Each structure stands twice: as C-alpha cells, then as structure tokens.
Amino acid sequence: MKEFLINILQFVGLACWVEIRTDQPQCTYYFGPFLSQKEANLAKVGYIEDLEAEGAQGIQARVGRHKPSELTIFDEATEFPKSPPKPAFSGQM
C-alpha cells in the first residue's frame, strides 16, 4: 500500500526526495522517492555518511518535492580541465 501511495505522489510530482549537492566532485544526487519529509530526513543521514566515506567534499543536503529525470548529475566540465583540441594528424599544424 505504501509503495502504491509513493507511486501516485511521484506521478504527480509531490513525492519527497533527498537532494544532495557536492562541491568535490561537483555532483547532484537524488535519493527517493519517499512518502513524507520525515522519512526522507531520516534516510538523508545515511546518504551523507556514504558520500563522506567516499571522500565527497562540500556536501549540502535538503529534502523537497522533486521529480528528477536523472538520479545523478555529474558536471564533467569542472572535473576535468579543458585543453585545446589536438589535430588528428601531425601535418595539420
């Protein structure tokens, strides 16, 4: 029954999710869905502990009503420095 209610809330965008943003690596994670904010807040502690154990830094977490299309959003541009493209053939320079 609980899962049925969560599915309905998720369908209409009213389910609770834990959103966690980290500075290093620069990611946004979504955990859920949950039936209530209380339930999501209780689970949030464990998610933060897991990310800390993996070495994540600058962790910010909040509980809210979301309908994420992706569960993990990784900003590759901040993780790897951009370098100018190299020519495919040495004769192109």
What is the 3D form? Answer: globular
The helix fraction, in percent, is 25-40%
Strand order of the largest sheet: 3-1-2-4
Estimate the strand proportion: 25-35%
- C-alpha Rg, in Å? 19 Å
Succession of helices and strands: HEEHEEH
Number of strands: 4
Strand count, sense and barrel status of the largest sheet are: 4 strands, antiparallel
Mean pLDDT comes to: 86
Structural class of the secondary elements?
Answer: alpha+beta
Question: What is the CA-CA span between the terminal residues?
Answer: 66 Å
Low-confidence parts, pLDDT < 50 over ≥5 residues? none
What is the helix tally? 3
Task: Produce the secondary structure layout.
Layout: H1 2-11, E1 16-22, E2 27-34, H2 37-53, E3 60-65, E4 72-74, H3 76-79
Antiparallel strand pairs: 1-2, 1-3, 2-4
Highlighted features:
single chain; 93 residues; four-stranded antiparallel beta sheet; globular
What does this protein structure show overall?
With 93 residues, the protein is of the alpha+beta class. It is 33% helix and 26% strand. It has 3 helices and 4 strands. The chain has helices at residues 2-11, 37-53, 76-79; strands spanning 16-22, 27-34, 60-65, 72-74. A hairpin with a 4-residue loop joins strand 1 (16-22) and strand 2 (27-34). 14% of the residues are buried.
